[in-house]
Amino acid sequence: MAINRFFNITGSTGVTVELIAPFAQTNNISSVTLTNIHDTADATVTLFLEDQPASGASNRFNIIHTIAIPSDSSLVLEGNDIPSIPDNFGTYITVGSSDTVDVMINI
Description:
The protein is mainly beta. It contains no helices and 8 strands. The mean pLDDT is 88. The termini are close together. A 4-stranded antiparallel sheet has the order 1-8-3-6, with no helix packed on it. The protein has a 4-stranded antiparallel sheet with strand order 2-7-4-5, with no helix packed on it. It has strands at 4-10, 17-20, 31-36, 43-51, 59-69, 74-78, 90-95, 100-106.
């Protein structure tokens, strides 16, 4: 059974947003669509995996790092673009301070 998760991420929050928590048992991601909904400016996006983020001593691995998605465009990650994610890792995103990105995850 496919599970879909949808997020509206705004950079004005200035923080990392958790998309999938560690140990959520939903880390078999089949695709991620990142859509820049701004009509004139690029959006800067970092999508990464991390274990124990609250500890301050975590391991972090970037799937994409500070990628500029053009205005009114989408970036689709699927298949080999997305690693197999261990259960103890969560999936997180940060975007630029004035950016707004829609995220759709298919699990």
